[in-house]
Amino acid sequence: MTPPRRRRRSPRNDIPPRPAGSAGKEGTGGNPERLYVVAGPDGARADLDLVTLIVARSPDPPPSATPEQAALLRLCAAPLSVAELSAYLSLPFSAVTALLTELLTAELVQARSSIVRTALPDRSLLEAVMHGLQRL
Description:
Low-confidence stretches: 23-28
Shape: flat
Strand content: 5-15%
Structural class: mainly alpha
Mean pLDDT: 77
Radius of gyration: 23 Å
Distance between the termini: 41 Å
Number of strands: 3
Number of helices: 5
C-alpha cells in the first residue's frame, strides 16, 4: 500500500500582499514581531536549562501579568520543566527563559535545578546486577 501523495498548493492571487513592517494577527505562527513582544529586549537571563523545574509560589497571576506570564503561572501550579512549559505554550526556549526570568525576579516562581550526581555508583554492585540479569 502506498501512502497518499500530497499536492502542492499554488499561491493564491486574491490575497493582497502584506505591507512591509506591518504585524499580523496575534498568535499566528512564524511572526517574529510577536515573539519579540513576548520575550522583550535582550537582557540578563536566568541560568535555566531544559530540565530545570519551575514551581509557582501562587497559581493566581497578579493583575499586572501579561497573558503569557499568567499562562506560565497557571501551568506551574505543579512542578514542570522548562522544556515542558515551552512545548505547552508553543514558544521557543529563549522566549520562555525571558518570561521566567521576569517571574523569578518578581519572586512569583521558584526554580529547582536538576540533581547532579557527583559520585558514580559502585562498579562491583553494577557487575553483580549485570550477572544476576544474565542468569535469568
